[in-house]
């Protein structure tokens, strides 16, 4: 952990002009983002000046309250992309409902994909499967199936893993599910947005107090805002035509 | 069959004690100190050490009982041990319920609405508690004791076979392991899925430990001490270390050839992946090479804390699970600074050692007890449990 903290502090000082729009609090976790795999459909959509995104997910893609939808990360992602891609129309549809396992989300996926025809499907999953200790083989099969459905509908995929939730850590065994997501992503050549490590780093550095018991929404909203911005960067970096994606490394310069 | 030494091998207690400490450190979620534990540097972790040594000591203790007093008496003792472990498991479950009932009452955060759903089972305790008593509902990190119970229930016939035809017993255990992989045998869990540690697979390591205790270790020693085997073991440990580094530094993953990744992933802990067994065996070969049985240092004070913990493994294992709950509680309620991680980890191990010393003292006093009683246990194995 100490190594990671030092590394991220070092990276903070190296942060380049491309990141100028992002608040420092979010940027702390920037090095967690890997740009290992390209997003060719997104690349073409950006070139065609119209980017359609579908977010499917469960409860951790939502925020409660009247402004929940506006402040949750899908809407923040849309806003950040609109800012970062001047001249491109960014449309976003969501299919987000709490307490859904990966298999349950895949069930309604074909009509959802047909309706919105996205260039990118962002898929947040893993938490509910871990909570219900769904058979890991079934979880893996659902991930594989969902990704191939998206691919055959002409959409790139980005996976988002579980949140880091320190209070419930001794009750939800996320490990095996996170590993399967990483492995499926590697096999299918799909980027993973490692939300867990990013939030863990924020907690370790004291950026956000994720332990606090509160009914207030302020921290939750800022966390979602940062996730939306970091996701936007992942999408844009992965869709850059002229950059080698396997190295992913602005940091290595 | 080769003659079996009657003196207890202190290395078993030493490494089981260390395994218990590592399990404790690993069980505190997000514990910064757990980066020192072996699971971060290779495929296997402390669970393998614990299961193997438990098999070894079970055969050592109950094998002697079976030779002296016959199958029925020895089996009765094994089953009594299984019952004790069951009671310990239920006791830990009660503590777990208390912890999460507290969290359910005191914690609220709009960021974690979804995650708090894990507490829903508190709303129907009738089902949950029954399923826990049936060992089908097992909270996080409470999977080792149920595995141990099943392994012991199965142990009397296995021990009988091991005493008569050790090689046949080991081969049949390996066959069960292979069939488990072939046919996907498993034990269902509640509400979904299967047991985190599949007993049909993990029995192999337990039986292998027992086989080693009953003369197998001597037969293997010629192999285990050959430079070729030691070299291969060292090479495999280095390989596993390099792969493990890619988990923490994803940037390194590009150096892992695609066919290697295809071959090794996913590394299945539930069914005791072959990669994990080989990693454990490699560690064992290297350890035995560095630490011979008659190593004089084993008697020294430095190793006493680990040895005394290893000698009372059930008590200390349960204490470790409890302390891990308590440690996580301190992180959430008091402080989550790095210093607190170190304090909790060190204090937890100190408590484990202190309690082990107390249990040791208490058992000695009980044995001396009022009135004359013939000493039933040899000094070399005093204080050791199965």
Walk me through what this model shows.
By secondary structure, chain A is of the alpha/beta class. Chain A has one domain (about 1-240): Rossmann fold, CATH 3.40.50. Helix content of chain A is about 50%, strand content about 10%. By secondary structure, chain B is an all-alpha fold. Chain B is globular. The model of chain B is unreliable at about 375-385 (pLDDT under 50). At the A-B interface, helix 8, helix 10 and helix 12 of A face helix 2, helix 3 and helix 13 of B.
SS-based class of chain A: alpha/beta
Order of helices and strands of chain A: HHHEHHEHHEHHEHEHH
Unreliable residue stretches of chain A: 1-20, 245-253
Q: Kindly identify the CATH topology of chain A.
A: Rossmann fold
How does the overall form of chain B come out from the CA principal axes? globular
Q: Spans of chain B of 5+ residues with little confidence (pLDDT < 50)?
A: 377-383
N→C terminal distance of chain B:
22 Å
Characterize this entry briefly.
The complex is a heterodimer of chains A (253) and B (386). Chain A is an alpha/beta fold and 253 residues long. Chain A has helices spanning 2-14, 24-27, 40-47, 68-71, 73-84, 102-107, 109-116, 127-131, 136-152, 175-188, 195-205, 218-238; strands at 50-57, 89-96, 120-124, 156-160, 192-193.
């Amino acid at each position: 952990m100490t190594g990671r903290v030092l590394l991220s502090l070092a990276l903070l000082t190296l942060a380049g002009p491309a990141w100028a729009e992002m608040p420092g609090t979010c940027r702390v976790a920037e090095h967690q983002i890997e740009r290992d795999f390209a997003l060719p459909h997104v690349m073409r959509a950006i070139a065609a000046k119209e980017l359609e995104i579908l977010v499917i997910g469960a409860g951790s893609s939502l925020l409660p309250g009247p402004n929940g939808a506006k402040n949750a990360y899908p809407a923040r992602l849309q806003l950040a992309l609109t800012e970062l891609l001047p001249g491109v129309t960014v449309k976003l549809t969501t299919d987000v409902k709490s307490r859904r396992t990966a298999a349950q989300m895949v069930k309604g996926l074909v009509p959802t994909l047909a309706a919105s025809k996205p260039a990118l499907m962002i898929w947040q999953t893993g938490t509910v499967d871990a909570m219900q200790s769904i058979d890991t083989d079934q979880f893996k099969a659902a991930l594989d199936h969902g990704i191939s459905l998206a691919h055959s509908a002409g959409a790139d995929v980005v996976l988002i893993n579980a949140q880091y939730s320190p209070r419930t850590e001794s009750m939800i065994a996320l490990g095996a599910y996170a590993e399967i997501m990483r492995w499926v992503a590697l096999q299918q050549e799909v980027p993973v947005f490692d939300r867990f490590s990013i939030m863990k780093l924020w907690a370790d550095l004291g950026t956000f107090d994720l332990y606090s018991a509160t009914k207030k929404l302020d921290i939750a909203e800022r966390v979602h805002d940062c996730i939306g911005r970091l996701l936007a960067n992942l999408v844009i970096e992965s869709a850059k035509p002229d950059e080698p994606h396997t190295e992913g490394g602005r940091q290595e310069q | 069959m080769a003659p079996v030494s009657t003196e207890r091998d202190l290395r078993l207690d030493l490494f089981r004690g260390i395994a218990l400490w590592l399990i404790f450190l690993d069980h505190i979620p997000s514990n910064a100190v757990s980066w020192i534990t072996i699971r971060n540097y290779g495929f296997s972790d402390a669970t393998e050490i614990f299961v193997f040594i438990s098999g070894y000591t079970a055969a050592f203790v109950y094998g002697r009982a079976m030779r002296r007093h016959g199958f029925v008496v020895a089996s009765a003792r094994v089953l009594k041990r299984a019952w004790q472990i069951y009671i310990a498991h239920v006791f830990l479950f009660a503590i777990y319920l208390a912890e999460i009932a507290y969290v359910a009452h005191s914690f609220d955060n709009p960021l974690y609405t979804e995650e708090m759903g894990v507490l829903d089972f508190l709303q129907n305790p009738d089902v949950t508690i029954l399923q826990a008593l049936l060992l089908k509902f097992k909270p996080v990190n409470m999977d080792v004791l149920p595995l141990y119970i099943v392994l012991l229930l199965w142990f009397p016939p296995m021990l009988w076979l091991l005493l008569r035809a050790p090689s046949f017993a080991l081969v049949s255990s390996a066959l069960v392991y292979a069939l488990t992989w072939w046919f996907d045998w498993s034990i269902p869990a509640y509400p979904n899925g299967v047991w985190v540690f599949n007993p049909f697979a993990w029995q192999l390591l337990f039986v292998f430990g027992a086989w080693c205790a009953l003369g197998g270790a001597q037969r293997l020693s010629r192999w285990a001490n050959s430079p070729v085997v030691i070299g291969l073991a060292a090479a495999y440990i280095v390989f596993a270390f390099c792969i493990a580094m890619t988990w923490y530094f994803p940037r390194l993953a590009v150096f892992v050839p695609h066919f290697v990744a295809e071959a090794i992933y996913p590394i299945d802990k539930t069914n005791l992946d072959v990669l994990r067994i080989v990693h454990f065996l490699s560690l064992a070969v290297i350890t035995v090479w560095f630490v011979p049985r008659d190593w004089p240092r084993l008697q020294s004070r430095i190793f006493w804390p680990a040895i005394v913990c290893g000698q009372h493994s059930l008590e200390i294992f349960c204490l470790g699970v409890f302390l891990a709950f308590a440690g996580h509680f301190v992180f959430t309620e008091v402080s989550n600074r790095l210093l607190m991680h170190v304090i909790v980890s060190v204090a937890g191990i100190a408590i484990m050692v202190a309690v082990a010393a107390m249990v040791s003292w208490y058992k000695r006093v009980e044995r001396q007890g009022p009135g004359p009683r013939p000493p039933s246990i040899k000094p070399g194995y005093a204080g050791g449990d199965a």
